[in-house]
Amino acid sequence: MLTNREKEQILISSGVDVRKCMRCGKCTGTCPAYDEMEYHPHEFVYMVEKGEIEKLMNSSSIYKCLTCFACVERCPRGVEPAKIIEAVRLAVIRKQGNNHIKAEDIPCMAEDDDTPGQLVVSAFRKYKK
Amino acid sequence: MIFSYYPGCTLKTKAKELDAYARRSAEALGITLSELPEWQCCGGVYTTAEDEIATKLSSVRALMEAKKEGHALVTLCSACHNVIKQTQYALNTDDDMAFKVGNYMQCDARAEADTKVIHYLELLRDIVGFDELKKNVKNPLTGKKIAAYYGCLLLRPSSAMQFDNPENPKIMEDFIRAIGATPVIYPMRNECCGGYITAEDPAMAKKNSTAVWESAKDFDADYIITACPLCRYNLIKSESPLPVIYFTELLAEALDVK
Lengths: 129, 258
Known about the structure:
Chain A has 129 residues and is mainly alpha-helical. Chain A has helices spanning 4-14, 26-29, 41-50, 53-57, 70-74, 81-93, 108-111, 117-127.
């Protein structure tokens, strides 16, 4: 059972004030990962406020955020939902043995000579510790 | 004029042409790009978490190094530019971050990383000037219809990037006009290509990238230009029928230094 400690950590790590959200859904409307997400940006904000952290931590949605900053830019209340998603993902991958990706998991690396280093370092930064 | 220059990892490997054309063109325009002696990889993507310090230090070191050299810092890869600018913004606006980074670096990080950072496109706009660039064009790309693909990283978050209007940018279109070509304005020019998701979900990246080139194609573009190696990779992997090239290649062509 997760406690308030997890919620507190996510709030501190993200720096987000979830109470500023007025639930307009613009973040979710503009999200390029919308179709792939079980929980959408506005739901992350709401569920963190309600303390429903465990569902978020167990959802693949935390790996679907593209860090494109569209929701950060377009939120009329300056809530910055991407920072909440990042903080939940970090709460997962910072735990021992919880890396989401390993070098051998990047299939294009072996046979594809065009893969830019930028892709590999970005994926590692987002998916592993 | 001399500027410190941060090329980043991909410009040394898979995006050598982005770098080479930029250096040659700068020289032709009377600008010297002096590569930082010991830069480290920016990490590719900015970690927004306020309790992440170590992942931001390579950017801090680049900023401090440029400050020591006494020049503004020029970046070229969209990702490097985004990470370095956001790191500097965090240092300047978050006292706790500045304090913790200072502890790692054993210095007053905010003061010592206080270097002006500009993207190569800003160098063309604000230092050279697009009118001056136009005068230097030897080989104008007359009649070419070019779609500028901004993607995310040059524009957002605009609080830190301060690059252009994040929803209706014009710097790349002004660049396209300066080299004699015709810009194509299309709806998806500042939407995401899928970025690093292609490492674990190539189908998702393909869907996002396809939406970008289809939009450019609908508006009759001949080419798509970008400053980002990963955008280029994703667009090409999604089988864009339009050639996707670095903006510096067209610049070098226009200046006749290709």
